[in-house]
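The material for today's practical consists of a large collection of protein records. Getting from the letters to the tokens is the skill we practise here. To make this concrete, we reproduce a full record directly below:
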Amino acid sequence: MSGRSPEALLGQIQAECKVVKETQAKTYSTGYKIVNSMIQKLERTKRKLAKSDTFTVAQKLCDGILKDKPHTTLTRDFKSLHGTVVHLGKTIDKNLKRTESCLYDRAAEQHSGASGSLDSKDLRCVIIHSLMRRGRFDIVDSMVQEMDLKMPVAESTRKIFEKMHSCCRALDSRDVTPALQWVTEVERIYCYPSNKQANGSGEKRAACQNIHLRSSYKDLRFQLLKLRYLQLVQERCGCIYCKPIIANGGKNAMEEEGASEGGGPGKCTGDLLKPITFARKYLAEFAGERQRDVERLTGALLFARDLLNSPYKDLYSDQAWKEVRSNFEAVFCRSHGFAGRDPLVVTLLASNIALPKRAKYASVLRARSNLLEEKDQAPLEINLGKSLQFHSTFVCPISKEQSTTSNPPMLLSCGHVISRAAMLKITRTRRSNRVKCPTCPVESAVSQVRVISF
């Protein structure tokens, strides 16, 4: 199964449900009309037979029914409905079905005394924390009230997420001011504290010494300033040179009135002075490290009259706003000590990729009972994709174990990498100070092997 998000999987199931609903409504409407028409014909025929008992009337009714073939139409419609229901079932099984029994051995778990379940209190805290990150405070209140729970998340945490979502709602309405004020204030106070501020907020200030976090603040501020600059360009001036083409003759106001006033394209300064002034004041500091971006923003001024058909139309897409909103949420959460991405969502995404493969692996082992008796089974390596990779890792191609500080990766002279434990095992087996690469026929002296640090 592909590593799609839970929203995408549930959205696919919802789409299939809508198809079933629409097909069922169409089948019901068609069936009702056909059956009702047959009943009316039968009623009319019964009234005619009551007045004149003739074979011709009954024969005419039978011929009409055979000609219309209502049963064929009903059968075809019900087959279509049945097909959509079957497809919905397959979609649910494909996206949601998980066989818990094939993932681990309950008997072995009970024997070892280990518990694979998460504490209910911790689980509630994770769920409520995730709902707050999504701004679903109404669901959090209902959950706490209906389950008669004590709020497992501090009130200060709720206020933090309420502030975050107030900025997010402003971004959704194309207002960058709240988010821009926040990131500017945070960058000024915590990343460049004055002597008076240096005595307090030591923990947050120390966190901002992280060069990555300081860089993320500056990057977010640039993205917000860029959106505001593009808004100013889009607003355009209200002078005669920027008025749209009028209906009569396909001429615009500049062509009609520019000659008399000595105007032309060069006269169109109006509100374009606003983005120019804004860029000089706020974007000048980014000219060195973001030269390409600043050049594109400047070039957009040349197409202010027709931005959506210009080479810079990608700057004005809704996707740009969505990306900035997502980046703002991540930076905001990291600044308060939370993960940049929702841990619950990351867990669901990872399990969506790993569990089917883990289930298949476990079923293969169960089919070969002799493998289950071996204590040192090779662990299963599962690639979760770059989106779920948060730090560099190395898995030894021989032992299938992830490297650690005590078992670091070792670079052979041929360029291939194995773990230290695997290298020592090879040297002990060969009783030699030379290591034969398991991938290629090249041999390396132990003195030539180097530890890789990353």
